[in-house]
């Protein structure tokens, strides 16, 4: 199944003004990297967010959130949410902002 291009189109405007952002095809989807670290991605119909261990665990308590697991081994600190649950722009922006804040704490690759 190809990734949700409409969701990727909704994400792109948020990253246009983020210095150092690179968009790349990865793992059969689309990813947005900051400083060489994946920050946000689109896989199938899901938004993938890199939030870090604590914020990722807290996000999993919210409706619609799932562990990021496409291989049978969940990635700690990463979550995914179905695009169908991301109806409004402020909610999408809030999740992206949270991921950007976390990824900015990581060393540049």
Give an overview in words.
- With 109 residues, the protein is α+β, with helices and mostly antiparallel strands.
- It has 3 helices and 6 strands.
- The protein has a single domain, classed as Aspartate Aminotransferase, domain 1, CATH 3.90.1150.
- A hairpin with a 2-residue loop joins strand 1 and strand 2.
- The protein is globular and about 30 Å long.
- The chain starts with a helix and ends in a 6-residue tail after the last helix.
- A 6-stranded antiparallel sheet has the order 1-2-3-4-6-5.
The structural class is alpha+beta
Give the radius of gyration: 13 Å
Total of helices? 3
Largest sheet: number of strands, sense, barrel closure: 6 strands, antiparallel
Mean pLDDT: 92
In which order are the strands of the major sheet placed? 1-2-3-4-6-5
Encode the helix/strand succession as letters: HEEEEHEEH
CATH topology-level fold name: Aspartate Aminotransferase, domain 1
* Portion of residues within helices: 25-40%
Topology summary:
Elements: H1 5-15, E1 21-26, E2 29-34, E3 37-43, E4 46-50, H2 53-59, E5 65-67, E6 78-82, H3 89-103
Antiparallel strand pairs: 1-2, 2-3, 3-4, 4-6, 5-6
Can you tag this structure with a few keywords?
six-stranded antiparallel sheet, 3 helices, alpha+beta, 109 residues, Aspartate Aminotransferase, domain 1
Brief rundown of the structure:
The chain contains three helices and six strands; from the N terminus they run αββββαββα.
């Amino acid at each position: 199944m190809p990734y949700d291009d409409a969701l990727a189109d909704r994400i792109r405007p948020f990253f246009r003004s983020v210095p150092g952002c690179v968009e790349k095809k990865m793992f059969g989807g689309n990813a947005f990297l900051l400083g060489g670290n994946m920050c946000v991605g689109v896989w199938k119909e899901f938004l993938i967010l890199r939030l870090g261990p604590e914020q990722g665990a807290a996000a999993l308590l919210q409706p619609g959130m799932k562990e990021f697991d496409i291989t049978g081994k969940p990635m700690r600190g990463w979550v995914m949410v179905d695009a169908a649950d991301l109806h409004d722009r402020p909610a999408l922006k809030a999740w992206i902002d949270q991921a950007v804040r976390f990824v900015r704490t990581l060393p540049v690759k």
